[in-house]
Design a protein that fits this description.
This protein has about 425 residues and is an alpha+beta fold. The protein folds into 2 domains: about 260 residues, Naphthalene 1,2-dioxygenase Alpha Subunit, Chain A, domain 1 (Alpha-Beta Complex), CATH 3.90.380; about 120 residues, Rieske [2Fe-2S] iron-sulphur domain (Rieske Iron-sulfur Protein). It is about 30% helix and about 25% strand. It has 11 helices and 19 strands. Strand 10 and strand 11 form a beta hairpin. The longest helix is centred in the C-terminal third of the chain and has 39 residues. It starts with about 25 loop residues before the first helix and ends in a 14-residue tail after the last helix. About 40% of the residues are buried. The N terminus is likely disordered.
């Protein structure tokens, strides 16, 4: 383990300077496992992470309703879901509602601050109990007949109780769902009999790496929702390569990052995609003990099946990419910007924080919605037409190879073969 690698202030791509948490464990991982020297090398030589060959992906996976239905059942209704980070529920009584994988859910903190999840359905007649997207409350009251539950889901009130005989309120609380909070990440299983084993889902190596980022310290401050006419996997794909930076993002993100320069490491069904910042040109001139990972690179984690977690010097972007179960050609992306808490609490720091939030919201709107997702929607148009039977993943797009073979393996499908010749 090396000392003194991350305790300094650095300037984000488009925003004021922000404090950085010491992440020596992660930096050590990059140096010793991923190969920080390799990241420097690709800048010098113009090389990139290499998939070792080519793959053809059938366009049917973006349009076929039967395929989409299998994904929905296997990846969403019957699989543990990451619904947010700890900062989404900042205090006892905090709650948020989630309805992105077929089961309406209340995620909350009870009076003791414990993370809980319940089906958002009144045990009387099944109406949604909580209709707000988020808030803070000690109790939840269904506005249909005023049945009331505490924020742990227990039934604590019902008008004219005598009409229901000897009802046992202990048996009529909101249906509890498996819920786990670990290393600042909130997990829920949509099925009451489901299980959540985070180390198994992420691998112990990735669990340890995420832990080093202290995600539990982050505060949510800025949310966006993008409604996009493209399959959810086309949205996932856009986060898996930087080959497009010099052309599509030449006046935006390409100014702060080296395009077509990246690192890629698998962790079971998940991976870390390492984007190379132009700051590495300065970092590589420094003694190794002064290297700083967030000045030189931006780690973007794909957490199966639909989460993109981009860790930055100021905090993180948390992106949930949610399919439409009724329309394979449509999805919704929900983005939350998280910040590390300030230290001084001064008005100057607060003003800088708000300015950073404004810049980042505009940044994501300009780049993701108005550039990346425009291309994703255009890809969907051609996929819908059936004019192309397949698309091609290059050697420089290993994350895309990993996305799609992971999805296929999870559905029990034959894997896409690795081709030595793109014309095969």
């Amino acid at each position: 383990m090396r000392d003194g690698l991350s305790n300094k202030r650095i300037r984000p791509l488009i925003a004021p300077a922000a404090a950085v948490t010491d992440n020596t464990a992660f930096v050590s991982s990059i140096i010793d496992v991923q190969g920080y020297d390799k990241v420097t090398l690709v800048v010098v030589t113009g090389t990139n992470a290499d998939a070792g060959g080519f793959r053809r992906n059938p366009t049917s996976v973006y349009v076929d309703p039967e395929h989409a239905a299998k994904e929905w059942e296997a990846f969403f209704r019957n699989h543990p879901q990451i619904v947010g980070l700890s900062g989404d529920l900042p205090e006892p009584g905090s709650f948020m509602t989630v309805d992105d994988f077929g089961v309406p859910i209340i995620a909350s903190r009870d009076a003791d601050g414990r993370f809980m999840a319940m089906v958002n359905a009144c045990r009387h007649r099944g109406a949604l109990v909580v209709e707000e997207e988020r808030g803070t409350s000690r109790r939840f009251t269904c506005r249909f007949h005023s049945w009331t539950y505490d924020n742990g889901g227990a039934l604590v009130g019902m008008p004219k109780r005598e009409h229901f005989g000897a009802i046992d309120t202990n048996c009529h609380g909101l249906i509890r769902l498996p819920a786990v909070e670990k290393d600042g990440v909130l997990w829920v299983h949509p099925q009451p009999d489901g299980t959540i084993d985070v180390d198994s889902l992420l691998t112990p190596e990735l669990t340890a790496e995420l832990s080093s980022w202290n995600l539990g310290e982050l505060q949510a401050d800025g949310r966006m929702t993008f409604d996009v006419a493209c399959n959810w996997k086309l949205a996932i794909d856009t986060f898996g390569e930087t080959y497009h930076f010099p052309s599509l993002h030449q006046n935006t993100i390409n100014l702060g990052f080296h395009g077509n320069v990246s690192g890629h490491e698998k962790f079971g069904r998940n991976h870390r995609f390492l984007l190379c910042r132009r700051g590495i040109d300065h970092v590589r001139t420094l003694p190794q003990e002064q290297w700083n990972i967030t000045e030189a690179a931006t780690p973007a984690y794909w957490l199966f099946p639909n989460i993109q977690l981009i860790v930055t010097d100021f905090g993180a972007f948390f992106i949930r990419i949610c399919p439409d179960p009724k329309n394979p050609a449509h999805h919704i992306s929900k983005i939350t910007i998280f910040f590390r808490p300030g230290t001084s609490g001064s008005q100057e720091e607060l003003d800088a924080h708000r300015e950073l939030q404004r810049h980042l919201s505009q940044f994501f709107t300009d780049i993701i919605r108005d550039e990346d997702y425009v291309m994703s929607a255009s890809q969907q148009v051609t996929a819908n037409s059936g004019a192309l039977t397949h698309i091609v993943f290059g050697r420089n797009e290993p994350a895309l190879h990993h996305y799609h073979n992971t999805y296929r393996a999870a559905l029990g499908m034959e894997l896409l073969p690795l081709l030595s010749d793109v014309n095969d």
